Structures are given as structure tokens and as C-alpha cells.
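Fig. S4 source data, part A: sequence.
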Amino acid sequence: MAAVIYNPTVRNLLMQSTMLRTLLLSILACVLVLPMAYAQQSTPAPALPQPKIKVNFLNTCRPAPADLEEMGRALAVVKDKPLFSKDFEIARGVTTLTEEEARAVGAPSGCGAVPSAWVRIRREFPEKAILVDVQYSLSVEGRSVSEALALHLRDTKEVLQILISDSVTGSALQALKADTLPDRIRIERFGKASIVLARCSGVDQSAYEPLFLAAGGILHKYRVAMSVKSVVPAELAHLPDHKESKTAHANH
């Protein structure tokens, strides 16, 4: 077999030509790719849509006329004398409030943590009643006493809850004997902002007096029906460091 003899010069030229062609292709690829990469980096990312925030401001001193009418209708629904079912619940306890929470209920600033003694009574209604249940609560924080009556409606298409509350300075026994009128009415609605009417000093609220009186009548009926004046002092007497209620309960 004849031997094949390569020309070294030709072989070197071929290798150099191949290397040059590869280098040119690499340079061409860089020239084409780099502008595209730079364009992608320099193009700002599309801004994400910002969530819409809706803020409802409640004018508790002077609600809108339409809201006042709706509040009147809601109170009229629950104005009748309550007829409870046999189910009920009575609870009592002591909760320590932070200084901020204590100031919110009327305690003086700088008093530190304040114990809150409370009693809660819950009664349920028959299945065909307008209301599902009602909850009355009384809490004592120092010399501040707060009452709250929460009425939960069975048909929640319009109104979820009616909350009637008051806050006075004194003792629990004084607050119960005085049969205090409410100073705040709150109607919680389904899918809408709540309607709130509150007593405001320095504001002429004579036009709203019928609503406060109607709410006061409801609160009075439930105080009587739930035996608040006898149940609450007896329950408070079982709580530690509540001397006033223990003395009053012993006198009875």
C-alpha cells in the first residue's frame, strides 16, 4: 500500500482557516446577542397594579339622615319584650388590661395595667324568633363601668348585629341601679359599613334623642328579662378582690 504524505504547509493553512472561521462566528454571535440582552435589561419591568384601598369614615356624632333612618328601622325590629328559650350561659372572669386599653375605657393615664372584672350573660331564642341570641356584659375597670348589649339577628341579609352600650363612672351597683341610658348605638350590616351613633359633648344631638331613647328602652327590657340586677352582683361577688359586690351580696 502506498503511503500518503501530507503537506505540512497545507495542513497548517487549513487549521488556521478553521480557527479563524470559528473566531469570526463567535464574534458575530456576540455582536448579535449582546444588544438583545442589553435591551432586555434596560426595558423596565411592567408595574404591578396597586391594590385599591377603600377607607370609610364614620361620623358618629352626626350620621347621615339615610343611616339614621336605617338605624331606627333596625331598633324597631327588636323593641318587643324578649321571649327566651331554655338555653342560657353565664360567665365571669378577670382580664388584665394594658395601660393603653385601660385609658380607652376611661382609666387615668399612668395607672399601668388595670384588672377588668366582668360578667357575661347569654340567652337564646326559639327557632322562629327574629333573634338568634342576645348577650349582655358588664365590666368594671377601677371606677369605670361599661355595659354592652349585643343582639344577633337570624336574618343577616341586612343587619348582622345591634350593639347598645354605655359607660359611666362609679361602681357596678350604682350603674345597675341608675338604669343608665346608652351613649353608643352600633348597627353592623352585611357587606356595608357599620352605622354608629354616639354621644358627643359640645354637639347639638337633640334630633337624635328619639334613637337614644328607643335604644334605652330596649336595654332596659333586656336588663329586666335577663335579671341583670340580681345576677351580675352575685357573679361579681365570686371574683377575687371585688369587695363591693361581696358586701352587697352578703347584705341580700
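Fig. S4 source data, part B ends here. Strands lie at 88-97, 114-124, 131-141, 144-153, 159-169, 184-189, 195-198.
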